[in-house]
Specification:
kinase activity; ATP-binding; six-stranded antiparallel β-sheet; single chain; transferase; mainly beta; ATP binding; Mak_N_cap; 2 helices
Length: 206
């Protein structure tokens, strides 16, 4: 279950994502809208993990982000912004490709066949809504969860429209620019949204 708080963010997600995308050489055009998102949980409950589909110019952009209560050591260049969350306080927003907790969640989903978490909205500790999502995400693998190996950190091997992240003995490929081609990998996360579908995360052994 992914807990979403009924809250305001300053700056907003749209402002954060738009500003960050404007600095990326692979991304052309302005952010005009949000299609939706899917989430996977951090088992420890400390890191928020969200993969957002955005309308940017004539393209669809897939943007995995992580939300942390404190800075992630060694990931300064991947910090998108800090934002003030009316329920949780200061949150540090990262490009999730540099966040080991987020990468492990994506790797685990791809290998085990997990589906995205339902989004339960809380207001002052009370469940007020189970939000329907227009985006669905499902892993293709059939591994037992306890068979997914641990790793200490991640190494970004390429950082662009297709980001390649080394995580232990695996390469995790994240498609950021949705162009009709699937992410490379023996297993993947298959994502659907109202106007499209594709494997936006791929995983393979090194």
């Amino acid at each position: 279950m992914s807990i979403v708080h009924k809250a305001t963010l300053t700056p907003t997600k749209k402002e954060i994502f738009g500003a960050w995308l404007s600095t990326q050489a692979w991304c052309e055009g302005d952010l005009t809208g949000t299609i939706g998102s899917y989430r996977f949980d951090d088992p420890a409950g400390r890191v928020g993990i969200e993969c957002v589909l955005l309308e940017v110019g004539d393209s669809v952009v897939h943007l995995p982000v992580s939300y942390r209560e404190s800075p992630l050591d060694g990931a300064e260049e991947f910090l998108m912004a800090t934002t003030e969350h009316s329920a949780l306080g200061t949150r540090y927003v990262y490009d999730a490709c540099a966040d080991p907790v987020a990468v492990r969640a994506l790797l685990t989903a791809a290998l085990t066949g997990a589906t995205q978490e339902p989004m339960d909205v809380y207001d002052q500790g009370r469940l007020v809504e189970r939000r329907e999502t227009v985006v669905t995400a499902t892993g293709t693998g059939s591994w037992p969860r306890n068979a997914v190996p641990h790793f200490d950190g991640v190494t970004i091997r390429s950082h662009g429209a297709d980001s390649r992240v080394e995580a232990g003995s695996f390469m995790v490929v994240v498609k950021r620019l949705v162009d009709g081609a699937d992410a490379d990998g023996a297993e993947s996360i298959e994502v659907t949204w109202p106007d499209g579908a594709g494997a936006l995360v791929g995983v393979r052994h090194l």
